[in-house]
Amino acid sequence: MSLQKRIQNLIRPEILELKAYGVADPGDLIKLDAMENPYPWPAEIKKQWLTMLESVDVNRYPDPAARQLMTPLRSAMGIPKEQSMLLGNGSDEIIQIILFAMAKSGARVLVPAPTFVMYDQIARFADMECISVALNANDFSLDMGAMKAAITRHDPAVIFLAYPNNPTGNLFDRSDIEDLLSMSNGLVVVDEAYHAFADRTMMDALDEYDNLVVMRTVSKLGLAGLRLGLLTGNEAWCQEFDKLRLPYNINSLTQASAEFILKEGDFLRQQTEEIKKQRQALFNQLQKTNGLKVWSSQANFLLFRVDTMSAESIHNELKQAGILIKSMDKAHPLLQDCLRVTIGTPAENSAFIEALTRIISP
Ligand SMILES: *Cc1c(COP(=O)(O)O)cnc(C)c1O
After folding, report:
1. I want to staple 325 with a disulfide (CB 3.0 to 4.6 A). Which of 341, 347, 350, 357 is the partner?
2. Cis status, amide bond into 114, omega within 30 of 0
3. Under a CB-based contact definition with an 8 Å cutoff, are residues 53 and 253 in contact?
4. Pairing of strands 84-88, 229-233
5. Chain centre to alpha carbon of residue 5
6. pLDDT tens profile 269-323
7. Which residues are CB-neighbours of 192 under 8 A, at least 6 positions away?
8. Ligand 1 pocket by C-beta < 6 Å: which residues?
């Protein structure tokens, strides 16, 4: 039997159909495609961090419960005392844990669209059907009529709501989310990956709705390389999900580094504030550009569209000018010719605006 034949026989057909999650190689481009914090750490803090790492015994397995990390993480994220926590190797892993736990035969996932692609992608890994309901075209708010109809029709086991949403940058109405929580038999996962840039949370509703859990991550805060996300909510949910968590999913270096930096973390907060200022500045510049539509954003990126040029040409020409952003054109019909740019340093943002203006002015 040829290897190809053997693979065709053995691998699940829905996996054969998938494409691996593509991440562009940035080379030495200015990287404004992945919602990373562009700022390095202060030199003194970096030095203390490296000294601290000398005491980490990487010959030993990490603490499976990450006990030392729990307190600083709780306090940095404002997790209520009475709520439980589950840690993941990035929130991506938590999405995977939730879906693997809930992938009963016929169980469905519901998401608004466009949204974060990993919900749909991981649903496929788990052999679950993922139903998507288009957002309202004008402002990317939830289409509540369609969402309610989908809940009635499909009775989804899980609903994912990114709050703020990626790639649209907006916060859904809290009252809409509460309506979905009230009418849903399933679990509602509110993904607050961009919380630091939005100052809004559904965490204070955890007491009221026992089908709500909230997800956070340190990635967009400036620690994407550590891979650390968390789920918080009722202990009963966390206990079930914890059964699927691989015992040492948070490695020793991540545990020690996150504990260290969250205690020293004032500069991360300052960087976040700076990014919010830069978001406003970049928004203003894009908004006054002729023939360009930009949506306001509560996250660390902006979504925009240029009337006279395809997203693909803009993306390619920016790349030639040394700048990498993300074309969202293929992601969803509502995003036709849309692009997403991450907020960078003032210098990076200026380089982006200069290049973009040159590219789109006739
Ligand atoms: C970036 C992003 C994540 C991924 O978080 P990790 O913790 O880095 O895995 C999760 N949800 C949304 C909506 C995101 O945009």
Report:
1. 341
2. yes
3. yes
4. antiparallel
5. 37
6. 999 999 999 999 999 999 999 999 999 999 999 999 999 999 999 999 999 999 9
7. 163, 198, 201, 202, 203, 214, 215, 216
8. 35, 90-92, 116, 162, 166, 191, 193, 217, 219, 224, 229
Q: How far is the CA of 256 from the centre of ligand 1 (A)?
A: 21
CA distance linking residue 335 with residue 192, whole number of Å: 22
Cα of 217 from ligand 1 centre, angstroms: 7
The Cα angle at residue 116 between residues 111 and 118, in degrees rounded to 5? 90
**pLDDT, position 165:** 98
Distance 224 CA to ligand 1 centre (A): 9
Question: Angle at the Cα of 15 (from 185 to 328), degrees rounded to 5?
Answer: 75
Q: What type of residue sits at position 262?
A: L
Could you tell me whether strands 129-134 and 187-191 are parallel, antiparallel, or unpaired per DSSP bridges? unpaired
Q: By the 8 A CB rule, do 353 and 306 touch?
A: no
Cα dihedral value 344, 348, 354, 358, nearest 10: -90
Tokens of 159: 């609903």
Give the C-alpha distances (Å, rounded to integers) separating 348 from 86, 275, 299, 325: 36, 12, 18, 12
Question: Is residue 361 very low, low, confident or very high in pLDDT (cuts 50, 70, 90)?
Answer: confident
Residue 154, SS3 per DSSP:
helix
What CA–CA distance (Å, rounded) separates 133 from 112? 5
> Beta 158-162 vs 108-113: how paired, if at all?
parallel
User: If you ran DSSP here, which 8-state letter would residue 55 be given?
Assistant: T
Give the residue carrying structure tokens 């390619």.
316
Q: Specify the DSSP class assigned to residue 147.
A: H
What is the whole-number distance in angstroms between the Cα of residue 23 and the centre of ligand 1? 14
Q: Are 94 and 231 in contact (CB under 8 A)?
A: yes
Q: Is the dihedral of CA 275, 279, 280, 284 positive or negative?
A: positive
Closest CA to 113 of 61, 161, 51: 161
pTM over 0.90: yes
CA 193 to CA 203: how far, in whole Å? 13
Give tens-digit pLDDT for 258-272.
Answer: 999 998 878 999 999
Q: What tokens does 82 get?
A: 């009475």
